[in-house]
What does this fold into?
Amino acid sequence: QMEGPMKKTVITEDMIVNKTANGYNLNFDVNKNYTTKTATVNGKTVTYRAYENIVYVAKPADIAYQTINIYIPEEYFKNKTVGKYNARTAPIFFPNTVGGYMPGAAGIPGNGRDGQPDASLIALSNGYVVASPGARGRTLEKDGKYTGKAPAVILDLKAAVRYLRYNDNKMPGRADRIISNGTSAGGGVSALLGATGNNTDYEPYLKEIGALNARDDIYAVSAYCPITNLDNANTAYEWMFNNIKTYKKIEISMLDYNVERKYTEGTLTDDEISRSNDLKKMFPAYLNSLKLKGKNGKLLTLDKNGNGSFKEQIKQYYIDSANVALKKGTDLSEFEFLTIKNGKVVDLDYDKYIVYMGRQKTPGAFDNVDLSTGENNEFGDETTNNKHFTEYMLKHSTVNGTMADKKIIKMMNPMNYLSNTKVKYWRIRHGAVDKDTSLAIPAILAIKLQNLGKNVDFASPWATPHSGDYDLDELFRWMDKVVA
Ligand code: DHB
It folds into this structure.
């Protein structure tokens, strides 16, 4: 199997299947423009129809990314079942390929970097319809204008959902059972998609790109290490890593989790240390403003030094993580910051744990004074490549940076929409040694959702770095359960 996430095909105009003399035909036709493919999953042959390179908007800015690939088990055209499902009941697995807020083309099922079937192939073998949307990203340019800055990525995912809902009765699978999946920036936009279904904030932007007139809410969210809540991620990062004055940094061009990472080591400058101290001090006010509640119903808070019940909760996630690993038989004896008694991890030295993890980013980790981050680049606009999105960095800008549109900053952060979302099922993972963002960020998302009465499956898997799709058996067990 040669295909998969490693193989990047550049989609050109001649490959688009739904271009007509008068624009793009947004009516799906199950009998046209497909190839039949086979793959082997766990020794079993999976046969499916591949409908690829379908433009999902009437007025695309970039046909290389505003397309969707749809894959349907062949059995569904013979009135058969696959696993638990048939043509009428099959859920739709909706994995994006976004990383680093870079453009992500529509995905193709195949074997992953590890040579194993990826999530999409497993989905097909389990009877899911797979619909993989492409989406624009921060580096796209056309005729001297940037065409993929925020909020392009979320508009494109919504437009792709609308395509599936609009064409629901023309293909196998249930458009009211769309489960979004993504990793890192892709996890962030997966959560954003779940948070903002049918929200009118996006309507004028969606009209502009010629999105179909249909619902864009989804059924459930899977998000791995979501790089999200960007306008509070700087302060959350320094709240966690303030004590760590050395770092192992990756170049921003390689920030995308899909790409092999190279690290350079360094030490924080006096300016950076002073910024870190400022940002750390700002986090408690934000955290306390959320009025999050723990499982016992008590408020999760932080005092002005950043200590308190919220910090205890974060520590508890790491303890829980170690206990899960211990139960699976992982040898934890090398980790002297753990206290293990009678086969149970009963305590963890938080400060030592953070030292063990180490710092990866310099302050500001997401919005920086010199506009150097991937997120600064994401918040640019048609004519300005990089912008600030926090008041602190605007004020301390060393490059006379300007502020992104307030409305667009709002539209990129799921936290602003959670109280209105109808999505009940959320599965969020953030590895216990992931330092691309502070664990506080996915934790805040998960706890807020729990407080809203949602069904949330949140965990920080032991010794797991910034990555996704590493527990596909559990992911599919969860998906099968929530669609039932
Ligand atoms: C990704 C990683 C980051 O550290 C970040 O800030 C944004 C995106 C990523 O891997 O997608």
